[in-house]
Design a protein that fits this description.
The protein is an all-alpha fold and 439 residues long. Helices cover 72% and strands 0% of the residues.
C-alpha cells in the first residue's frame, strides 16, 4: 500500500463526516446502518482486490460481460453495417470500424441488455437474485424491507426497480423515499453499463469488471449516505421485514423479449433527448460565462477560460483529493467528476475515455479506476427529475413528499458514488494494477 491508499481510506470517513454535518438530524444516527453499510463495501472490495479467488471472479465477470457485449453487437452490425463496428475492430467479412459512433455502437446494446434482463425476470432468476441481496441488507443493516428491495434491485436495473415496491410506496416515510431516490441515483442499470464499457474498453480493458464491482458497492453506500443525510424519524411498516419483489410477469418468453426491447428503445430515446438538450444548454451557459469571464479577465489582468466544467472542477477539487487520486491528475479528474452533476455520466465517461486516449493523465491506471467508481451512478439533476417523476407516477398522492427530499437524495447519491471510489482506491495497488486495469 502507498500514501494514496491511505488517503482513500481516510476519505471514506471524511465523506461520512461531511454527510453528518449536512444531516437533517445529527443526533439521530443509526450506527448499525453506517457500520454495516461501510463494512459490506470494504468486505466486497477486499475480496475483489486482495483475495486471489476474488480477483479471478472479477476477471471472469469482466470477460463474461465483454462476451455478452460481442453478442449484442451482432444485431447492431446487421442493421447498421460498418457504422456499428466498435473502434479498432473488424467484422467477420473484414470490414474495418469507422471509429467511435455512439448512436450506432453503444446505444443498440441498451436494447439487447433490456431484453436480456426481461428474460431473466420472466425465468424468475432476477427476482431470486434481488431477493437474496435484499435479505442481506435487511438483516444486517436493519432497514425496511422496501428500502432493501429497491437498493438490491438498483444494482441490476434502473428506475423500473421502483415497481418492485409499488404496493408499499403510498405508506413510505420521508426517510424511505430519500433512500429510494438515493439508491436510484447512486447506481447505474445494467443496460446502460454496456454503453460505458464500449466507450472505455479500448483504453481501459478491464472496465466491465470495475463497473459491476461499483454497482455492488453503490447499493450499501447509498443506504449509508441516505440514512445520514435524512435519518429515520418514523417507523416504516416493513422495518426489518423481508418482502418479496412485486412485478408483473409476461405470459410467455417472446412477450418478455418484445417488452424488454421496447423498453430499451424508450430508454435510448430518453438518453438521446437528454444529451441533446443538456449539452446544448451547457454550451449556451459556457458562451455566457466565456463572455463575462473574458471581460473580468481583461479588467483584472487575469488568465483562464471560464466554463461550467471549470467551475464544477474547482468545486469538486477537494473531494477528488480525498478520493486518493494522485495530485498530478486531480485537476483533470475533478473536472470530469464535477461535470457529471450537469451533463450526466455518459458525457463524463466519454471525457474520461478522451483523457486516456490523449494521455492527459500522469497516473492513468489509478486515476481511471478511482474516477470510474466515482462516476458510476445517475447522480445528476436530470436523473433526479426522472426518478422523482417516475416514483410520483406510481404514488401520485405522495408527490409532495417525494419532491421534498429530492435535493437531499441527490446530495446523498453524489456522496455515495464518491464513497465507492474511496473504497476502490483503498485497495487498488500497483502490485495488481496491470491485472485489474488490463494493460
Amino acid at each position: 500500500m502507498d500514501i494514496y491508499n491511505l488517503v482513500s481510506f481516510a476519505g471514506i470517513f471524511v465523506l461520512t463526516g461531511f454527510a453528518w454535518v449536512l444531516s437533517a438530524d445529527r443526533k439521530n444516527m443509526n450506527w448499525r446502518v453506517i457500520f454495516w453499510g461501510i463494512g459490506l463495501q470494504i468486505l466486497v472490495a477486499a475480496f475483489i482486490f486482495l483475495v486471489p479467488a476474488g480477483t479471478k471472479v472479477f476477471l471472469l465477470v469482466n470477460d463474461v460481460v465483454v462476451k455478452i457485449l460481442d453478442s449484442a453487437s451482432a444485431g447492431a452490425e446487421f442493421v447498421f453495417g460498418r457504422l456499428a463496428i466498435p473502434p479498432g475492430q473488424e467484422s467477420e467479412t473484414g470490414e474495418k470500424s469507422l471509429g467511435t459512433i455512439l448512436a450506432f455502437q453503444a446505444f443498440p446494446t441498451i436494447i439487447f441488455f433490456s431484453a436480456l434482463i426481461a428474460i431473466l425476470y420472466y425465468l424468475k432468476i432476477m427476482p431470486l437474485i434481488i431477493s437474496t441481496f435484499a435479505y442481506v441488507f435487511t438483516k444486517l443493516m436493519r432497514i425496511s424491507g422496501a428500502e432493501s428491495l429497491v437498493a438490491a434491485s438498483e444494482i441490476f436495473v434502473g428506475i423500473e426497480s421502483n415497481l418492485t415496491v409499488k404496493p408499499y410506496l403510498a405508506k413510505m416515510t420521508q426517510s424511505e423515499f430519500c433512500t429510494v431516490l438515493t439508491a436510484g441515483m447512486a447506481t447505474v442499470s445494467s443496460n446502460v453499463l454496456a454503453l460505458y464499457v464500449l466507450r472505455l474498453e479500448p483504453q481501459f480493458p478491464k472496465i466491465a469488471g470495475h463497473l459491476v464491482s461499483a454497482s455492488l458497492l453503490a447499493a450499501p453506500a447509498a443506504v449509508v449516505m441516505s440514512k445520514i443525510i435524512l435519518p429515520e424519524s418514523d417507523k416504516p411498516i416493513t422495518l426489518g421485514v423481508h418482502i418479496q419483489p412485486f412485478y408483473e410477469r409476461e405470459t410467455n418468453l417472446f412477450e418478455a423479449i418484445i417488452n424488454g426491447a421496447n423498453a430499451g428503445v424508450k430508454m435510448i430515446v430518453g438518453i438521446v433527448a437528454l444529451l441533446i438538450a443538456v449539452l446544448g444548454l451547457v454550451a449556451l451557459v459556457d458562451l455566457v460565462l466565456s463572455g463575462i469571464g473574458g471581460g473580468i479577465n481583461s479588467a483584472l489582468g487575469l488568465h483562464g477560460h471560464w466554463s461550467l466544467k471549470a467551475i464544477l472542477g474547482y468545486i469538486f477539487y477537494p473531494f477528488t483529493l480525498i478520493l486518493g487520486v494522485p495530485l498530478a491528475d486531480v485537476g483533470q479528474i475533478s473536472k470530469i467528476i464535477g461535470e457529471r452533476a450537469i451533463v450526466t455520466e455518459v458525457t463524463a465517461y466519454n471525457d474520461l475515455a478522451a483523457a486516456l486516449e490523449q494521455k492527459l493523465l500522469q497516473y492513468p491506471q489509478r486515476s481511471a479506476v478511482v474516477a470510474t467508481y466515482a462516476l458510476c451512478g445517475f447522480a445528476h439533476f436530470a436523473s433526479m427529475a426522472i426518478f422523482v417523476g417516475g416514483i410520483s407516477a406510481l404514488a401520485p398522492e405522495r408527490t409532495r413528499n417525494i419532491a421534498a427530499v429530492a435535493l437531499r437524495a441527490l446530495l446523498a447519491a453524489t456522496l455515495a458514488c464518491l464513497m465507492t471510489a474511496c473504497v476502490a482506491g483503498t485497495f487498488f495497488t500497483q502490485g495488481k494494477a496491470s491485472i485489474l486495469f488490463g494493460d
